[in-house]
Prior knowledge:
Layout: E1 10-11, E2 14-15, H1 24-38, H2 41-55, E3 61-63, H3 65-71, E4 74-79, H4 89-102, E5 107-112, H5 116-128, E6 131-137, H6 138-143, H7 145-153, E7 157-161, H8 168-181, E8 186-188, H9 199-207, H10 209-222, E9 229-233, H11 238-244, E10 254-262, H12 273-276, E11 278-282, E12 285-289, H13 314-321, E13 325-331, H14 332-346, H15 352-359, E14 371-376, H16 384-391
Parallel strand pairs: 4-14, 5-6, 5-8, 6-7, 9-10, 9-14, 10-13
Antiparallel strand pairs: 1-2, 3-4, 11-12
Helix pairs in contact: 2-4, 4-5, 4-9, 5-7, 9-11, 10-11, 14-15
Amino acid sequence: MKYGVNELGYYGDFGGAYIPEMLYPNIEELRQQYLKITAEPEFIAEFDQLLKDYVGRPSPLYLAKRFSERYGANIFFKREDLNHTGSHKINNAIGQILLAQRLGKKRIIAETGAGQHGVATATVCALMGIECVVYMGEVDMERQAPNVARMKMLGATVVPAISGSKTLKDATNEAMRDWINNPVDTHYIIGSVVGPYPYPEMVARFQSIISLEAKKQLLEQTGKDLPEYVIACVGGGSNAMGMFYHFLDDEDVKLIAVEAAGKGVDSGHSAATSVLGCEGILHGSRTILMQTNDGQVIEPYSISAGLDYPGIGPQHAHLHKIKRAQYVSITDDEALQAGLLCSQLEGIIPAIETAHALAHLERMKFNPGDNVIICISGRGDKDLTTYINYFGF
């Protein structure tokens, strides 16, 4: 794959494994084992069966007729919101729990921002009878309270991260600390295409089912397997990487990744990493991140907990640098308005993360007959309080 990872774990200038010595055995074990394990027929059969019978895949590719009329193109929604647990996160969680079992791990840790990855991880741990600890920023625990309750109901221990901005970055730091202290029996299910190699590649592979299905479904519905545009929101970037994966080498397909501008790119309250960031090391990989001149991470801000992250995955950093994908940003206000529009035109209440991707349609000009696929990465139940507070319902 032209845009894939090399044998050293890099996508162009980005990637690698910048880790404390204590984590080296864990990362090395994963690097040596994950491709071999995930290629085993028994693994593939169990993964496929769970995606089908437990998650409910394939997720539909839905032609959103009222959106299509509004924007003058064929707007297709890839409905990851219809998966069990309500988002794309379950695809990766199932892949990694099966991997952890085969590596003999007895305990699972995870980080979560919006709570969807935490819920997905707690779900697969309940399914497999494995102990689960989820780290979540204290701020995110308040704004995503329904997901905290779900995780606890599923049997997970939810540990608040109380340092820094008390959001996703800080939850990731706490999970990394836990892993350093419990390296032998614990597997860390990272929820996005971030972290030290092989995580970005492994998560992308588990999420690539999204674009694999979408290509087949578009062919069935239109006679063409390649759309003109593929759009997805990006925090760390797992739904976008899954949505882009099987279109990367098709260079006629325009890939658009939508970040969170927060209160405005220049407001000091933003998570628009590709605009505000520069190259550096974050959570074990070389990538693009928001940082001060002396290398301190700048606290990100977004009304959407899942996009409130100061970096992007290394593969996204590479695609941005070489201009294979376009990285844009949408404000809180634009995203919330787009979420309301989707609810009232299509009867689908999207997660606020997803609403960022939908909002970008307002800035685009299409030719009649253009096929556009947007990843509806999650449903909006978890965000109802935010919607209610904003619109005054």
